[in-house]
Amino acid sequence: MYKRNDGLTEDNRLQNRFTSYLCRSVHNRRIDYFRGKEKPLRIEIMLEDMDYLVTEEQDRILQFAEYDALRQALKEIKEQERYILLARVIEEKSFSQIAGETGLSYKGAAAAYYRTLERLRKLLGGGRRGF
Question: Which key words are in the record (predicted)?
């Protein structure tokens, strides 16, 4: 018959900590899963809402010109830099996740991200912070 873990012995305390760790891990993974499912929907809705914000023809022309400049600047950076930038900005991945996917360290992924931002600022002709 099942005997409840009272936590009095070292083994029982260790088992309690491990069980707690496992429950928290499953809970966090479940939240990450649902956030991942929700994220593409949020991006699609945001893109649809942007169409309503642009009403005048001149605004549309400026918008396309900015997109073309950004698209050209993204073509000029390396593939890994582009992946790191888009994973961080679009997919909202952490530097730890990006580092695991690219084989870099946490600091290496963060440094590559910020270097890429600076390079894009220079390519787009903007010297201001807060890209």
Answer: DNA-binding, Sigma factor, Transcription, Transcription regulation
Report the predicted TM-score, pTM, of the whole model to 2 decimal places.
Answer: 0.48
Q: State the Cα–Cα distance between residues 117 and 111, nearest whole angstrom.
A: 10
CA atoms within 13 A on the CB side of 61: 3
The span from the CA of 94 to the CA of 19, in Å, is 26
- CA-wise closest residue to 109 among 130, 131, 94, 90: 94
What tens digit of pLDDT does each residue of 60-76 get?
555 556 777 778 888 88
What gap in Å lies between CA 71 and CA 66, rounded to an integer?
Answer: 8
- 7 conformational bin, left if phi > 0, alpha if psi -120 to 50, beta if neither: left
**CATH class in words for 56-131:** mainly alpha
